[in-house]
Amino acid sequence: MLFSKRAALVTGTIVTAAAAVIGSAAAGQASGRPSAETHAIAPAPKPTIPPELQVPDGNKKTAVFDAQGVQTYACTNGAWTFVEPAATLSDARDIRHRPIALHSRGPVWVSTVDGSAVNAAAVPGASVPSTDAVPQLLLKATATRGSGVFGSVSYIQRLATRGGLAPEGSCSEGAQVGVEYSAIYVFYAPVQS
């Protein structure tokens, strides 16, 4: 029963993430704070890890992926509120940038290669804000599935963020907007003794 609920959740998140990323690209949403123009988000540079986002000892880096997508916001009571991320992850070494994972509400990351998945939650106090991008974060895994790339993930760092901030100003009730963002996600797993 638990597996079937997880399978339904993962299937729904894959469809939601793919639709949001494709829809945002088609709509030509702007990076950073939306404006009338469309700006492409360049790939993030090699990340520097702030001290607040260090992963505890006993964990090793297992994967590093570039992410391109949107942070979705909805207008509630005249203000923009965060709804969900929707991004595709690819290996920076792949010049064709083929998607190898999807990132969506939960937050959850699902491998499109091996079906493994990880859900996570932000670690309290492990956030580095930015004036022009969504904050960098340290997240801790809350559940994993499968034996693939995400099957044993313990921590995730969101680094080198660009764009993704909520629009400025008032809005019309019920409106939604996807704001382009990019980041580097670094995945860690426990060191095997």
- Strand line-up of the largest beta sheet: 1-2-3-4-5-6-7-8
Order of helices and strands: HEEEEEEEE
Instruction: List how many beta strands DSSP finds.
Output: 8
Radius of gyration: 16 Å
Counting DSSP H or I runs of 4 or more residues, the number of helices is 1
Helix content: 10-25%
Q: Compute the separation of the termini in Å.
A: 33 Å
Task: Please state the overall shape, judged from the principal axes of the Cα atoms.
Answer: globular
Give the uncertain stretches in residue-range form: 1-42
Summarize the biggest pleated sheet.
8 strands, antiparallel, barrel
Average pLDDT figure: 83
β-strand percent reads 35-45%
From the helix content, strand content and strand pairing, which structural class follows? mainly beta
Structure description:
By secondary structure, the protein is mainly β. Helices cover 13% and strands 44% of the residues. The chain contains 1 helix and 8 strands. The chain has an 8-stranded antiparallel β-barrel. The longest helix is centred in the N-terminal third of the chain and has 26 residues. The radius of gyration is 16 Å and the shape is globular. The N terminus is likely disordered.
